[in-house]
Each structure stands twice: as C-alpha cells, then as structure tokens.
Amino acid sequence: MSRLNIAVLTDRSALYVAPLLLETLKSGKIKFDKVYLRKKAVGGKEKSSLLSVLRQSGWNYFFFRALGLLKLKFTDWFQTVFLRRPVEERPCLGIDELCKRYDLPIAYIEDVNGKEFIDQIQARKIDVILCAFYSQILRSEIINAPLIGCLNVHPSLLPRFAGTNPVYWVLAEGEKEAGGTIHLIDEGIDTGPRIAQCKVTISASDTQHSLYLRIILRLSKVLRDVLIEIQNSGKIEFLEGDNSDRSYYSRPTPESFRMFRKSGRRFF
C-alpha cells in the first residue's frame, strides 16, 4: 500500500513520547500526519487531579517524584544550554521540540471522543491512530474511525501490569524482567490483541526513569518495524496468546511506595 497516514495522540507533559517516536522519524520511511496533544487541565480540573493523586498515593510519593523530575529537567536544561547536546541526545526531550526538529504539525484537542475530532480523523483519511501515553480512554466511535485501527504503546509485558504506572509497579513488586507492548486498542483497558513486545532485564541499580528509558528506547525500534510492516502489507499481524494471566494496577499507594523506597528503588 501507499504511505500510512498516521495520527499521533499524546499528552504534552508525557516524558517519554519523544524518544519513543525517534527511531520511526529517523528512518524516513514513515510520515506522521499530525501530532495531537491533549490540552492541559486548568483551574478546578487541574486542582482536582492533583488532589486525587495526593489522596491515593500520599505526600511522600508526590514529593519525591516531583523532586526527581525537577532534577531531570535541570540536567536537561544544563546540557542544552552549556553542553549544546543535539536534540536526539537530550535526557528530557519534549514533544514540542521533537516536532519542531522534524517539522511535524501539532494540534491541540480537548476531547478525543468528541464529534469534532472524529470527523477530522475521517476527513483526513487517517489509517492508524497511534496512542502514546495518552491519558484519556478511547470510546468505540474513535476506535473505529481510522481505516486500519488504533494502536497503543504500553510499557509492560501485557497482559501483566496493565493499567497505570506499570514501570513503577514492576519495581515495587520486585520483578526481574520488564518490557513493552504494542497492541490494538479495543474498548477495554490494555486488553486488545498484542502486535509486538520487547523485554529488558531489571538491574539492581535501575531507577524508574532508567528502566523506563531502556524500555522506550527498545520499543522505539519495535514501533518503527511494526509501522513499516503495516505500511508494506496493509494489515496487522498479531501475536498468539490470551489474557488469562492478566494483572491490573491503579495509581501507587502509600504502602507500595514505602516498599519501593525500602527496596532501594528511586524515581530518578
């Protein structure tokens, strides 16, 4: 078939979406139609979201994660301003900067399930919607809007560790192995048929960030190959397997964070 027409869905604050897309962009074989960023919640919605995290995960979780993220952002700023690191080598590259580097158009949306966005996807004859760290659940109307399907990138070896913050949870649960999955989106949460996976071994020195980044850098190459294969064949091939050993996790709890810290793990 001709070149895939791909729309990317992500959150502007997503930390790992830029390195995820990098290998596909560098290949020059796949072209993204547009990157759609979800508008950040403001006012009451933003305050409500913050309070929800504090209630479920606790102040310690929030404080240490925020502190680690601040350190990472400072490192990125220092290396950009003083060391002149290339875009592709930045430790905290934002999606805005990646789009500017590769001349990708950006659009902002409020509701991925709204009629306006669905009409736009159909009018632009989008073949594939690629969801990468997008925080809104897709309903059937948008799932069925692209010509081929909606793909999701999830940083765990599905069907295990479905749900929220899987890289944190594999460390909190003392797993020896982690990985990532590319799957077709259905109306469940991380339940669609799997297309490709990659595995990494967890080391004793891994932080959440170092493990996350290793998974994403491996997934970046897998994603590139999956998209090229779909473009060449015009169809999606699936892995064998079912969801019999599925596990699902929500936001971290204060107790899980105590165990996370006690085991020597850190965010960054």
What is the CATH top level name?
Alpha Beta
- Sheet-strand content, in percent, reads 15-25%
Using only C-alpha atoms, the radius of gyration works out to 18 Å
Mean pLDDT: 93
Total beta strand runs: 9
Largest pleated sheet: 7 strands, mixed
Spell out the helices and strands N to C. Answer: EHEHHHEHEHEEHEEHEH
Count the domains: 1
Give structural attributes.
268 residues; alpha/beta; Rossmann fold; two-stranded parallel ribbon; 9 helices; 41% helix
Short recap of the structure:
By secondary structure, the chain is α/β, with parallel strands linked by helices. The protein is 41% helix and 18% strand. The chain has a single domain, classed as Formyl transferase, N-terminal domain (Rossmann fold), CATH 3.40.50.170.
SSE diagram, text form:
Layout: E1 6-11, H1 17-27, E2 32-38, H2 44-57, H3 59-81, H4 95-101, E3 106-109, H5 115-123, E4 128-132, H6 140-143, E5 149-154, E6 162-163, H7 166-172, E7 177-184, E8 194-201, H8 208-233, E9 248-249, H9 254-262
Parallel strand pairs: 1-2, 1-4, 2-3, 4-5, 6-9
Antiparallel strand pairs: 5-7, 7-8
